[in-house]
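Lab notebook, bench 4. Continuing the backlog of folding jobs that were queued last week. Each job is logged with the same field layout so the records can be merged later without manual cleanup. Today's entry covers PHOP2 phosphatase, a 241-residue chain. Filled in by technician R.K.

JOB TYPE: sequence-to-structure
TARGET: PHOP2 phosphatase
LENGTH: 241
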Amino acid sequence: MKFLLVFDFDHTIIDENSDTWIVRCAPERTLPNGLRNSYQPGHWTEYMGRVFVYLGDNGVKEDEMKRTMTTIPFTVGMIDLLGFIGENKELFDCIIVSDSNTVFIDWILKAADFHKVFDEVFTNPAAFSNTGYLTVQHFHAHHCAKCPKNLCKRKVLKEFLDKQLERGVSYTQIVYIGDGGNDLCPVMFLKKNDIAMPRQGYTLEKKISELAQSLSPVQCSVLVWSSAIDIMSYLKLLIKE
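JOB STATUS: finished
OUTPUT FIELD FOLLOWS
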């Protein structure tokens, strides 16, 4: 029997937000106020599209972006954790569900040689246009009122599990590792035997504890982590059982 590990990316695998890190490529490492203030809640992907246009207009090329993105630090202990998962792939299927984009995640994982650890990456499709500008699109359309317009992580997880079932693969337990508000929707989909691992001090942990206080707790178990070593310790216990 296999375990499914579901990872968020920003502030989970890496210790930063990949979308805000790219601003280091901008002139004077900052964005104009008008652009910064143009973000509307739930429409982050559109906002990032405008950021990429601004970078392109200022002559920021693909190789400079790539150099900058591959300097993002991994979260404490994450390199050890991903190494451990890579050594035990017969026990773990491992996916990323992220509101970042395919280009950033691909660059970062390949630079650190971790791309083989993950079976699939679900994130907003991005590509460089003929004119050398980075463009990003919505991952999918959905009808979930709780999630940003471009991505409902619960829908992604549910569709992945359905597809795996069709292939005859079911999981002993799902372990969901994340930090953000948009990780709550998939966590609420998890069953009693599953486990949510919110990062300590981040939005997901706060939202899960608010639910518990309002007497509508999540069904799954909850284990908070501050270093990826905490996650690795839990996984080692799992495979001993």
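OBSERVATION: The chain has a mean pLDDT of 95.
SIGNED: R.K.
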